[in-house]
Each structure stands twice: as structure tokens, then as C-alpha cells.
Amino acid sequence: MKVQLVLCLLLSGTILLSSVNIQAQSFPRDPRVPQTPSNGMDPANTNPAALSGKVSVAGGADITKDTVVVLDCGFGDRARANVDSRGNFMLRLDNGNSSGSAGWDRNSTGLTGCSLRAEASGYQSSTINLQGDPSGVIEVGTISMSPLSHLDGEGFIVSAASLAAPERAKKHFAKGQDQARKGRWTAACDSFRKAIQAYPRYAIAWLELGRVQLHQNAINDAQQSFVSATTQDSRLLPAYVELAHLQAAQRQWGAMARTTANLVELAPESSAAFWFLDSAANYNLQNLQRAENSAQRGLRLDPGHHVPQLEYLYGLVLGTKRSYNLAVQHIKNYLQLSPHAEDAHDAQSRLAEFQKLASTQATQAASK
Q1: C-alpha angle 123/129/134, rounded to 5°?
Q2: Which of 215, 239, 306 is nearest to 29 (CA)?
Q3: Are 240 and 230 in contact (CB under 8 A)?
Q4: CATH of the structural domain 49-148, one choice from 3.50.50.60, 3.40.50.2300, 2.60.40.1120, 3.90.226.10
Q5: Which residue among 267, 299, 306, 307 has the highest number of C-beta atoms inside a 10 angstrom radius?
């Protein structure tokens, strides 16, 4: 029962690291987090205010499905909007679009001190600083994102081995990227293989080969490619994430726990979703203390509840440890954040179970 529940959580999870638009084993952002569709304004609003613009990815890669634009005014995220497949967004400034319970206060100090950024797991975003009072539709320009694996910085450095790839290998790699963007998976696979044949230590090529193999439903081959990517570059975060996805889908909890241990060690402050993966793997292995610690770390990194499944998973861990009152609290949090989740019915059942057990526990304690 526990394995099935957590597998459900994982498969409806929240992260995707990709420089091509991967469908297989993706973790799209939870649609229940308050977001605004990118397709328009509320016609009932006679004086709408909105921010309109575009998100682009370095190198021309596709926009991933989990990409959102976030308005930050220095005291937490105030509003967010989805980004469509072409990178366009329309972020409304009204209560219906706010990410916090207080909503956007149009009578406040306006946009001065606020900034816009894009969010997608595995990417770093540029920032657009704003000022003035919002009125009408404001064109803000383009927000650019770069894959973390392509940036300098702790935990995200591409190995010297990849950077040292010869020109012949780089040409095959670039050709493979172009073919993948066009959905030509067989041709892309061939190009990435040629890049690897020309330079076997080409970690990024191994990563992209694995992603293309997912499109071809070659799961075992993809898994081996991701392993090869991490072997050639032990700091390549996207490869660990892709590998963890596959291991979760195949219920390879021991292997997944080893993968996520590397992930959170490399980037402990990077993503709550990384800690969610680590907690889920260890929960299924009944390593409850590790599962609890990882869930707690994830929750501390996620004050905006962008990974609401952490609340449910933490509740399951606490319930297994017989901390029923706390388990009830966190599962309630999850259902408040995600009332229409696919696993909401299961969460309601677990909530009722833990409420009953909490009552029995209290009665037994009172009778002693």
C-alpha cells in the first residue's frame, strides 16, 4: 500500500530537468498551485492590469511544461502565471492570480521594488526589475533561462571532459539537439551516438541520448545512458534527476535512494523537489528517519508550497512513525493546497485513518 501511494505521488510530482521537451517520465508542475492560464484576461475586470512577455531558453531549447513566471516583491511570491509552449505568458495582477492568501494589493506601492523571474526545475533565470503603478497590459520583454548543468557555480559545473570534446563530437551533438527539437528522435539518437563515438567521455551527449531514448520508449537503454552521464561527469545534476525518475517508475527504491543521495549532496539548497525524491525513495525502503529528515529539508526550502506533495509524503512518514496528530496536520495541509489532486481520495482515506488512530492513541494515553 505504501509503495503504491508514494509511487502515485512521484508520478504526479513536480520536477523536470530537460533541454528538450521530454514527455516520458516527466514531473510536471502541480496544476493545483494557484496559477493563471496564459490565454487571457478576465473580461469582467474593467481595468485589468497584467504583465505580458516571453521566456526563452539559452540555445533555443524548448520550454519545459513546468515553466512558470513569478512576481516577487521582496516579501514572497505575489503572483505567478503559466508559460505556453512558445514561451509566452500573461500574468494578471489581481486576487485571482495571487500565490498568497492576501492576494495582490493594487492599492499598495505598485510594482516598485518588484521583479519577475521564470521558474523551471533545473534552470536558472534572469530577472526583470519593475517599477511604477500597474495599469493595463505592460510588456516586460524577455526573461532568459539557462540549464543549471551549463552554468558555472557550485554543484553545476560541467566537467572538463565535456568541455574538452573535439569539434567533430560537438558538431554531432549540436546536430542531435536540432533534430531533437524537431522531434526527429531516431536521427537525434544517431547523432548523439556519433558524438559519443567520437568522444566517449562526452557526459552531456550521454544525457541527451538518454532523453531521446525515453521518447523511443527504450527505458533500459535510457537508464544506462543516464548512468554513463553521471560516470563521465559526477556533478551533472540533470542526469541524476532523469535517473531518479526512471528508478521511481520501476520501483527501484534502493537504486533511487543512492541516486537521490548524490543529488541532494551536490545541491542541498537547490530544490525542494530533490528532497521530495530522496524522502520518497527512503520512505519506500522504510528508512523512516532519513525520509523524515529529507521531507523536513524539502519543506523548509518550499515556503511557497510549490511541491505540495511534500506535505502528503511527510504526513505518511509521520503516520508510519505513529505521530498521528502531526500526520493529520500535514495531510490536511496537502488537501488544502491540492483539493483536486488525482490522489486526493487516497489522501482523504489516509487522513480519516490517522484521525481515528490519533483518537484511539489519545484515549489510551488518558486511561493510563
Answers
A1: 120
A2: 306
A3: yes
A4: 2.60.40.1120
A5: 307
